[in-house]
Amino acid sequence: MSSQADPLVPTPPPPVPPVSVSRLRKIFVGPGGIRAGWRFLIFAILLVCLWGIGFRLPVLTRLQRSTPKGTLTPALDITLELIFISSAFLAAFVMSRIEKRSFTSYGIPLKGAFGKLFWQGAMWGLALESVEIVVIYALGGFSFGTLALAGPRLAGYAALWAVSFVLVGVNEEFTFRGYAQFTLATGMGFWPSAVLLSVLFGAVHLGNPNEGLVGALSVVMFGLFACFTLKRTGNLWFAIGFHAAADYAETFIYSVPDSGFLATGHLLNSTLHQGPRWLTGGTIGPEGSVFVFVLLGAAFPLFAWFYPAKQPGEATRMTAPQ
Questions:
Q1: Which residues make Cβ contacts (< 8 Å) with residue 167, sequence separation at least 6?
Q2: What is the DSSP letter of 321?
Q3: What is the 3-state secondary structure (H, E, C) of 218-235?
Q4: Which of 86, 121, 174, 267 is deepest in the core (most CB within 10 A)?
Q5: Using an 8 Å Cβ cutoff, are 288 and 215 in contact?
Q6: Which residue, 139, 143, 114, is CA-closest to 290?
């Protein structure tokens, strides 16, 4: 019998090789789902779009028109912070649904909200700002002056600015060290993402009136310290309290410029004297002084001593994302 194939019988097709994963898909999707960089980009786009909607609110437009440039008022600041917070929370909530994660994974758990860590952070922030002001005063760069407010106006402004700066703390900490930090850390590690976002945090402050490079660098250092507290505590409540109290002390209690802004309704008729910019910070305020770097530098080892590193089994999802 002939061994040649029968020409009347069709030859079976060659085996089809297994289909490989699309290279394009690999760019956008990794083993854990959408890659960290794309998730961060989606969050940023959502955030900017929501800001755009908020900035069109008539109440904000009226407040901005009635407030002199470079001045902070409680009404304007509270309105802006509520827009920023609602935008950041909504954008992060949308991302939590996409990622199938709990919203509390992003650093602000409801358990412990405004609890012990928040108040410990507030004491640290108040202490740091007070030590800096006292040092500047001792070196002749600051005068306390007289009381600028009394009675019901004092109580009213004290309460309004307290609310305002708590909102500032929630907004800036969550925007830069909440969803963004958690997400980028899953792709590039905790500290690389902390450095990147802290630099971005400082760069954003360059848009403030009278802000300068030294002030922006101090903001970067502040951001790194806030990241360190996040790493050690597992959430943002200490950083929020620290941020809120430091800004409150600087703006309301000691009544000096904060990132170049002057506030209405402050406690003291105080004065930052004409003198070396390295001492007083000049128009930037104390965050442009060399002493903010000294104090924040000292805060790192001091915080490490009070809040030791967690053991590997104790690490949280926020500090060690899966």
A1: 77, 78, 81, 82, 85
A2: -
A3: HHHHHHHHHHHHHHHHCC
A4: 121
A5: yes
A6: 139
- The CA distance from 171 to 119, in Å, is 17
CB 322 within 8 A of CB 187: no
B/e letters for 16-45, b = 16+ CB within 10 Å, e = fewer, are eeeeeeeeeeeeeeeeeebbbebbbebbee
pLDDT of residue 132: 97
Give percent of the chain above pLDDT 70: 89
pLDDT beneath 50, residues of the chain: 1-2, 19, 315-322
Largest CA distance in the chain: 118
Q: What is the pTM of this model?
A: 0.89
Question: Among 273, 136, 292, which Cα is nearest to 214's?
Answer: 292
Residue with tokens 């929370």: 89
pLDDT for residue 320: 42
Tokens of 20: 């490989």
Instruction: Indicate the pairing of strand 262-263 with strand 71-72.
Output: parallel
Q: What confidence score (pLDDT) does residue 315 get?
A: 44
Per the CB < 8 A criterion, the answer to whether 263 and 72 are in contact is yes
Tokens of 259: 């990132």
